[in-house]
Design brief:
about 140 residues, alpha/beta, Transcription Regulator spoIIAA, 4 helices, globular
Amino acid sequence: MPPSLDGSRILTEEPDLVIGHLVGHVTGDVMQRLFDVQHRFSEGKPHLFLIVHVRHVADVTSEARRVVIDAPKVKVPAIPILGCSFVGASFHVRVLGTMVFRAARLLGGANTFPVRYDDTENEARAWIDNLRRELRRPR
């Protein structure tokens, strides 16, 4: 059974995929528990990819946004995230997400990795599969 995060949940798939389903009022506690599961799953892995379903998010608290910015600083060593797709994001969530990731990059708390917005999980998985192929391609 996936860990419950007050209606939200997080799933992991080998070898390197974390799938979050955020629902309703996303608090700092919910985001911290999500990061904790992600961190445990990342042990021994060279990198991760993320898919985050946000279609059913009502709001994200400032505390939750701070966790997104600060969590990579706390969990050392941080496992590189090589791509993140947000699925089902409204215009408001896209704007908010873009602002949070920019702030995280400026404050030095997050990896610089590709972020995109998809309408479906299938689109997100296809993009991540392409990133994996690029990663395996000889340089």
